[in-house]
Structure formats: C-alpha cells, structure tokens
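Look over what follows to help learners.
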Amino acid sequence: MIEIKGLEKEFRIHQARPGLAGAFRDLFNREYKTVKAVDDISFQVEAGEIFALIGENGAGKSTTIKMMTGILTPSGGEMKINGFVPYKQREEYVKSIGVVFGQRSQLWWDLSPLESFRLLKSVYKVEGKEGDAWLDRLVEELEINSFVSQPVRKLSLGQRMRCEVAASLIHRPQLLFLDEPTVGLDVLVKQKIREFLRNLNETEKMTVLLTTHDVSDIEALCKRVLVMDKGKLIFDGLLADLREKWGNGTEVVFQFKAKTTVEQVRAVLGDMPCELSRENEYSIRIKIQRSQEMLPYVLSTVMSSFDVSDVKMVETNTEDIVRNIYSTKDEVVAHG
C-alpha cells in the first residue's frame, strides 16, 4: 500500500536581520538558510495495517503526512502509495484516500453534516444504492443520526469530529490519514471513534495511518509504531518492541507473609541486574529491565524462597516510553 524510499523535504527559510537597519537591508538583500524537515526516511506498509507515526512538534511528521497526501512535493527520494505517485497524480490519487485533520474541517459551517455528505457524494461521484447503504452504515456506526441534520456550527466538538470521520469515508477510500483525530475529545467519544476504526479495519481491510500525541489512541489501535525525531525515522517496529527498547522494564511488587528486608531478597537473587526498593515491612518492589528474559526467573526464585501472599506486576505504559524517547540525549539508530 505504501512504499517510501529515501524521502526528503527541504525548506528555504528567510533569516531576518535584527533592528531597523537589518530590516532595511532585508528589503534589498535577503539571507536564507536551508532546513531539512524530513531527512532520508524509508518504510513500507502493507494493505490493511493500522500504524502510528509519532514525534515531537517539529520532528517532521506533519511534513511527511503532507507529502504522503500530495500537498507537498518531496525534495528527494521516491514514494508510491496505492499505486500512485501522490504529487504527480494528485487528482486520481485523492480519490483513493481519506484525510481527517483534527484542526481543520471539511464540513460546511452553515449546512448540516447530511447536506455536506450529499455534496461530497456528488464531488466523488458516489451514486446508487451501494453509496446510500455505505452512508447509512457510517451514520449508524458512528452514532451521529440524532444530530446529522443540525447545522455544523451548532454541534459539539465530539459530534463534529465523528461527522468529520464520516465525511472522509464517503467515497470508501482504501487508505485513511488521521492527524490528531481525538484531540480535545472526551473519553466516551474517543472510545466510539476507536471502536469504529477497529471495526472498519477488520471489515474493509482499510489501511489507517494515525498521527497523535494521545498515547491511549496508539495502545488502543496500533501494533506498529514509527517514531520520528529531527526529520529522521528513529524507530519502526511493533509497539511491544518499542516498550522493550525504551521502556522502564517491568516492576514486580511482592507482598510477603512475614517481615522481609531488601537484603534478604537480594541474597536469593544474587547478582541479577535488577533494582530493589522497600514499600513497607511486608512489601518489596523489584524493577526488572529485560522483562521477557528475567521476569520468570525473578518470580520463581522469590516465590520458592519466601512465603508470598500477593504479587502485582506494573508494566511501563506508552506515555512513559514516549517521554523517554523525547528526553534521551543519545544518538538513536533506526530499528527495523
């Protein structure tokens, strides 16, 4: 569905000189600098995948999305999406994609969503009973029937966003771009949109690209994650591998029947690289870095050496992982 090789995008930015004299000089002789917003990224996506593209503001993900949707022309590299080169065959290409930008609307403000849907059906030449049945399904599954005939300006943000999702799918695209689709929405509306997208992916095999700062969206929808930083792709892999690479590991809290010290537990674990801390006289927390390899050993060793009344495991959540990625100072190597 998506094949991208060595994609680059450079911008030429005007460097303003300071002061009135600098402003006067800029009128006649401007200075520019070249900024590389996207720097030699490559990845492939199979049809039917739901994947996330994440990164801090300025990481290059919005520029990447704009090139993938045909809005921007790349400075270098190759891309083929759904058989098209987006910036060369834009008119044909856009018929096969749907786009939802969280901050921009494709609905007419003074019309009802239903009237906007009818206009979009005409634009995309969606006709006949099949087109009507598809729209009915969108209205039903996104639960927008009760307000679909009201003017868009009277809808809440959550109601409008569900209508935006429906509008982007009127022409039954094979690829859906979602840029911050749940920004500012309450938990229930987010849940409805996520359930709808999961169902759409399963029944229609629709490929979905999600960019978001809401890590709960990623956990709910995506198995694969691409991470961008300073224009480069620094990670491309499974969410589980992302946890392993940048997570804080797994923490296990043991509740003992008798008073137990950190020294006693450390004695049975030997030189195993894990951190121990005391919760209270009966409880000790063990932080394990390489959870998949070491967790079974720690569990079996501690439970065979002491009388344990309870065990609680705490996994690193994706929000902590994303924070770890953004705060790291080391040079990170792209991971396939």
The chain has two domains: 46-244, 249-315. Residues 250 and 315 are 5 Å apart (CA to CA). The two ends are 18 Å apart (CA to CA). DSSP finds twelve helices and 13 strands in the chain.
